[in-house]
Amino acid sequence: MRGYDRLFIGGNWERSTGTDVLDVHSPHSTELVGRTPAATTADVDRAVAAARDAFDTGPWPRLAPGERIALLRRFAELYVARAPEFAELITAEMGSPIGFSQTGQTLAPWLLLTTLADLAETYPWEAERTGVLGDPITVRREPVGVVGAIVPWNVPQAAIMSKLAPALLAGCTVVVKPAPETALDALALAEVIAEVGFPAGVVSVLPAGREIGEHLVTHPGIDKIAFTGSTAAGRRIAALCGERLRRVTLELGGKSAAIILDDADLAATVDGLKMASFMNNGQACVAQTRILASRARYTEVVDALADLVATLRVGDPADPATDIGPLVAARQQERVEHYITLGQAEGARVVAGGNGRPPGQPVGWYVRPTVFADASNDMRIAREEIFGPVLTVIPYADEAQAVELANDSEYGLAGSVWTADAERGLDVARRVRTGTFAVNRYTTDFAAPFGGYKASGIGREHGPEGFDAYVELKSIAGPAT
């Protein structure tokens, strides 16, 4: 049992103005693992006021970039010392297998901090150029202002760091609104932030529900919103920001395709899809959940995926041997079970998994990893984000149709192609309309931009391009000659 009785507001630990609490339950045992205060609209008002004052009159946005970089490097040092603790906490909160928590949940945030601090060293915060008439022009990248960062529960600290690190390096002040399911690790992260030595008002962390998030989005003291979450919520946030001409970046859902070409090494492909498709119990926006296989090898691919699922160990996420843990909440378990029922009603065939509890798991929010065959790309299980360990295998006639099927989606976040011919794979990659793509694997690199086409979002995170969302461009002409 881990508890907090205060929120992190403007660099200080403050009591909430309300009395509501957030109870965090283990997805494995359903038992209570911790409790935090639930932030109120008045708490948001206090945090935004502190951030506004810190930005408008405080030292943070006026420091030289090198001074901010030095503090972010200290942040990284303090963070990595507590990474093992954070991994265990995130596993307890939301069911991520401990092996993934030690990499995707905690190594990734540390890499984000260190990589972005390195990139900030060479980012063109201020650059000189010559105008068309020969006059000098200075182009400055200045911090956008007070940032509201709203993050989900599936990769909570990585999602926070994707926004917090570039915003701070740019000189912004930040109010973070974590999801209620992962309130504990958010406030544990705030303990590290408190040690770093940021000026007063620069960072606040306020766990709360959706209504408080909307108050943050519409708050008049906010200059920019950075959001990761569902496409439906992203549309709502985009509309609210549009009414206010407020800067916004959105990292949203996906329904990514893995294209298996006929020359692919199937054993290596299936081994790669174990992570690409099932990472974090399938609760990943980049998960490769549409598997596109040629008709010539369709049965072979389906059988190989069914065999893979049979080997996956489902159970206690704290056990290092576990491949698939529980889903984050009962509502998520019900959602995934609904889609499994729906897929069968649509005419797809379950070749592995299906509804019903995994053996040996009488409690907890578990579902059985599932593979559908005989599916078409117009089925809802092929078009809608399920956010669980469910794969849909879709046949294609030739490479051109495989690319067409991959692009036939409202989403465009991730994808992969599996082939023995690297150049052929790169050619396919260039034709698929998606923000990230990989050949014979799926991974992202924090030195490169991350984000989506179409309904998968607006804007990019990571890489030097990730700073662009947190700056305004100013052109200064002169002095006249």
UniProtKB/TrEMBL annotation:
InterPro entries: Ald_DH/histidinol_DH, Ald_DH_C, Ald_DH_CS_CYS, Ald_DH_CS_GLU, Ald_DH_N, Aldehyde_DH_dom
EC numbers, comma separated: 1.2.1.3
Top EC class, one word: oxidoreductase
Swiss-Prot/TrEMBL catalytic activity: an aldehyde + NAD(+) + H2O = a carboxylate + NADH + 2 H(+)
Domain Aldehyde dehydrogenase: 13-476
Keywords associated with the record: Oxidoreductase
Presence of keyword Acetylation: no
Active site: 251
CDD domains assigned to the protein according to its UniProt record, in alphabetical order: ALDH_AldA-Rv0768 (cd07139)
Entry-linked Pfam families: Aldedh (PF00171)
PROSITE patterns per record: ALDEHYDE_DEHYDR_CYS, ALDEHYDE_DEHYDR_GLU
Family membership: Belongs to the aldehyde dehydrogenase family.
Protein name in UniProt: aldehyde dehydrogenase (NAD(+))
